[in-house]
């Protein structure tokens, strides 16, 4: 199936209403520099399709005249988002504003691409039972490199190379499908519907099995060939720190990932402990866990300061399934951030957002929404 995105000024109207609605017609016309007649002409097909609806009558704040603001009808379109890990497919159904309407997961029987596509299709059928089972579009995200938003060039956790996942899923789901790196998808969701909404510049750092980094500059997400390989994971943070699997001493991956923190605490305690237990023990004052978590939180503060210093952005979103580290180790984080940030620089606006795999799946849906609206994900190449 092919994409059918809106185009031209009609798309601009729908996009403004999608991101900031409900909006009075006068405000829409002002933002888009349209005459009242042009705006009426452009909104007619959007109203007729049911994508845009008129809200109850209000009075314009400037003229005092009655007006009916325009808004998106969220139920007009449903989107499917799926996040793939090494052993599970996590899925969500969202509205066109990425509001989660249903969520679920399905174990992958194995990592063969055909088995994965079958599991995604079965998950979609389960999630679609209460939503008509039809999607305007679907997004699939995973850790790895993706070309043309269709082919997985490489995916370490799945052991894939050159897998045409997009066409296979499109045939199984009977809808357009866009495939993307999971970190880029999460960044898109934050840009349009999350902590980055309304900001022309912001950075996203995630902590989990690895270190993720997304950057939006001048309203566009950076999505070059190296954006999906975790290059920030090897940024040096502690010259006396532990080694990462690549042999780098004290880099972000060696200091901050869930496996790294678990390994250091488990080694010190002489028993295997999971990540949440590491943080719980640190909060309770256990000397081994408190030292490890404090060092890691300080490293996160240094990394956050480095991103702010190098990109000149003042909003940094910290996320990922390991980001509870920033809360438990907050004193160490704040102290390191302050040491590595010039006293003459603007304060960094640091937002901590805990996420789980449902949020990553929502990111995949957000990529599908952007593709439907724009014809290509924001930051991509038409």
Q: Order of strands in the sheet with the most strands?
A: 7-6-5-8-12
- Note the beta-strand portion: 15-25%
CATH class of the largest domain: Alpha Beta
Number of helices: 13
Largest sheet: 5 strands, mixed
Alpha-carbon distance between the two ends = 17 Å
Can you tell me the residue ranges where pLDDT is under 50 for at least 5 consecutive residues? none
What is the assigned CATH homologous superfamily of the largest domain? ATPase, nucleotide binding domain
Query: What order do the SSEs take from the amino end to the carboxyl end, as H and E?
Result: HHHEEEEEEEHEEEEHEHEEEHHHHEHHEH
Secondary structure: helix percent: 40-55%
Description:
The protein is an alpha/beta fold and 382 residues long. The protein folds into three domains: 8-75, Orthogonal Bundle (Arc Repressor Mutant, subunit A); 77-188 and 359-374, ATPase, nucleotide binding domain (Nucleotidyltransferase, domain 5), CATH 3.30.420; 198-352, ATPase, nucleotide binding domain (Nucleotidyltransferase, domain 5), CATH 3.30.420.40. The chain is built from 13 helices and 17 strands. The strands form five sheets. Strands 7-6-5-8-12 form a five-stranded mixed beta sheet. Strands 15-14-13-16-17 form a five-stranded mixed beta sheet, sandwiched between helices. Helix 4 (113-128) packs parallel to helix 5 (165-173). The protein is globular. The mean pLDDT is 90.
């Amino acid at each position: 199936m092919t994409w059918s995105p809106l185009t031209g000024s009609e798309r601009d109207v729908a996009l403004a209403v999608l991101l900031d609605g409900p909006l009075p017609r006068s405000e829409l016309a002002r933002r888009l520099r349209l005459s009242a007649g042009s705006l009426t002409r452009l909104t007619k097909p959007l109203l007729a399709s049911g994508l845009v609806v008129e809200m109850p009558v209000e009075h314009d704040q400037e003229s005092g005249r009655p007006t009916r603001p325009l808004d998106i009808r969220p139920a007009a379109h449903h989107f499917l988002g799926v996040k793939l890990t090494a052993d599970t497919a996590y899925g969500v159904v969202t509205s066109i504003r990425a509001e989660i309407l249903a969520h679920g997961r399905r174990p992958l029987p194995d990592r063969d691409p055909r088995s994965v596509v079958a599991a995604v299709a079965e998950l979609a059928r389960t999630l679609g039972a209460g939503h008509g089972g039809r999607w305007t579009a679907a997004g699939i995200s995973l850790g790895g490199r993706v070309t043309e938003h269709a082919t997985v060039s490489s995916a370490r956790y799945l052991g894939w190379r050159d897998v045409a996942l997009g066409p296979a899923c499109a045939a199984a789901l009977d809808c357009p499908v866009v495939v993307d790196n999971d970190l880029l998808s999460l960044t898109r969701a934050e840009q349009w519907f999350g902590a980055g909404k309304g900001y022309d510049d912001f950075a996203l750092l995630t902590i989990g099995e690895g270190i993720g980094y997304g950057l939006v500059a001048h309203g566009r997400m950076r999505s070059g060939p190296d954006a999906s390989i975790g290059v920030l994971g090897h940024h040096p943070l502690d010259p006396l720190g532990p080694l990462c699997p690549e042999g780098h001493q004290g880099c972000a991956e060696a200091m901050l990932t869930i496996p790294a923190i678990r390994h250091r605490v488990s080694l010190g305690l002489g028993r295997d402990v999971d990540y949440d237990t590491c943080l719980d023990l640190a909060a309770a004052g256990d000397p081994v866990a408190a030292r490890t978590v404090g060092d890691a939180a300080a490293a996160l503060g240094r990394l956050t300061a480095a991103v702010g210093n190098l990109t000149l952005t003042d909003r940094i979103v910290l996320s990922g399934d390991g980001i509870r580290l920033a809360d438990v180790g907050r004193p160490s984080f704040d102290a390191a951030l302050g040491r590595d940030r010039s006293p003459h620089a603007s304060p960094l606006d640091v937002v901590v957002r805990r996420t789980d795999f449902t949020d990553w799946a929502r990111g995949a849906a957000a990529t599908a929404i952007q593709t439907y609206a724009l014809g290509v994900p924001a930051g991509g190449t038409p």
